[in-house]
Amino acid sequence: MTNKRSGHVLLGINVLVLGYLPAAWKTPLLEKDAFIDPAYWENIGKTAERGTLDALFLADGPLLGDPAYDANPVRLEPSVNWGHVAAATSRVGLVATASSTFNDPFELAERFLSWDHQTGGRAAWNVVTTRGVPAARNFGISDIPARDDRYERASEFVDVVRALWASAADGRDIDHHGEFFDISGRLRVPPSKQGQPIIFQAGGSPQGRTLAGRIAEGVFAAELTKAQAIEHYRLVKGFARDNGRSPDDVKILPGLLLSLGSTEEEARRRSDEIHDAGPASYSIGWLSQAIGYDASKLELDEPFPDEVLGPIKDAKTFLGSIGFRESIITQIRKTNPTVREYLKQTRYTGSGHAGFVGTPEQLADHIEDWFHAGAIDGFNLQPDRLIDGLPVIADELVPILRKRGLYRHEYETETLRDHFRAASPTPAF
């Protein structure tokens, strides 16, 4: 039996510029330059704040994306871009992804703390290690470092950044001499209103989960089933406890790809229409990138061969997301679809992230079920098309959750850290 939990769920929006589907830009609701229009971003922030949402997420883009499978191949640098939103809002948290592989810890610490000060304590850093070879070449490196090396650097990087943030508060110089960095000095930036910016982690590999348990206050997870999500939830909370932290110190928010409608039929029609308006190569290209195998070579009307579904030959050199791949392979093994059936299925059930197609009421059922099952602390929602998908979340989903006692009626806290603290306590496990 599922135990009821007190408190409210956390709700974030993964702002994939225009939406997670490639054809989101084709709607007449958008101007052609919306992705660089301050008015577009201000509207996103105001709509999210109207729904008292906890946070908006925006990924970095240290390379030009491949339009064959990247829904948003061009994007602005997130910590700068969020300036438009910060000026138009006062409560919603703002999360920016930044790579620990291709940034300098002193510069990043200074930039994010300055940005946090300007937002009144609403900033968060989503730590990623970056996995693309083209990104490495943009920084003058011929190849991406090995996974273990990237995570070892990330661990030290975060420690240095936190020490620098602390130096802004206590005025003491740091003196760090590690494997990757030698830094002596301190930040001359005003201290954070929330203590320090929130740190998110977004990796599902064993190294990523271990790092999350040690340093993260939020985890942007990728879980396709409730059973997988419960296991991941307990694993990361356990790593937090092993590091002397309370399990409640780290909040788990899986991504959830959304197509919403007033009826389930309408939601499926919307999903099909936006999918069909995109490039035919999108699904195959994305699947190839996610599983580390050229899916264009697979027979569409045959099941996936065993060599595709087998273990990664060398996890250290695998360039995809291990967490995404594990979720996808588990899903394929469970139902044994043909390649064509799987690509059709992902329209409704998700790919690396889980998918949801239905009504706001049904989505509220899904959130309530996973929340009380101990699978999540909240969701990072990813609308198919943001311009008309986000208002449905703010104006229809949130009121339903409020009626069920799962969400606050007004903002009760000001900083992102306090939004997190006010959310549900972690149940014992």
- How many strands, which pairing sense, and closed or not: the largest β-sheet? 8 strands, parallel, barrel
Number of helices: 15
Number of domains: 1
Do you know the CATH architecture? Alpha-Beta Barrel
Blueprint of the fold:
Layout: E1 10-14, H1 38-50, E2 55-58, H2 78-88, E3 93-99, H3 105-119, E4 123-128, H4 133-138, H5 147-170, E5 174-177, E6 182-185, E7 198-201, H6 206-215, E8 218-221, H7 226-242, E9 251-260, H8 264-276, H9 282-291, H10 306-309, H11 322-335, H12 339-349, E10 354-358, H13 360-372, E11 378-383, H14 386-403, H15 416-422
Parallel strand pairs: 1-2, 1-11, 2-3, 3-4, 4-7, 7-8, 8-9, 9-10, 9-11
Antiparallel strand pairs: 5-6
Write a structural description.
The chain is α/β, with parallel strands linked by helices and 429 residues long. The protein has one domain: Luciferase-like domain (TIM Barrel, Alpha-Beta Barrel). Helix content is 43%, strand content 14%. It has helices at 38-50, 78-88, 105-119, 133-138, 147-170, 206-215, 226-242, 264-276, 282-291, 306-309, 322-335, 339-349, 360-372, 386-403, 416-422, and strands at 10-14, 55-58, 93-99, 123-128, 174-177, 182-185, 198-201, 218-221, 251-260, 354-358, 378-383. It has an 8-stranded parallel β-barrel with strand order 1-2-3-4-7-8-9-11, surrounded by 7 helices. Helix 3 links the parallel strand 3 (93-99) and strand 4 (123-128). Helix 2 (78-88) packs parallel to helix 3 (105-119), helix 5 (147-170) packs parallel to helix 6 and helix 6 (206-215) packs across helix 7 (226-242). The mean pLDDT is 90.
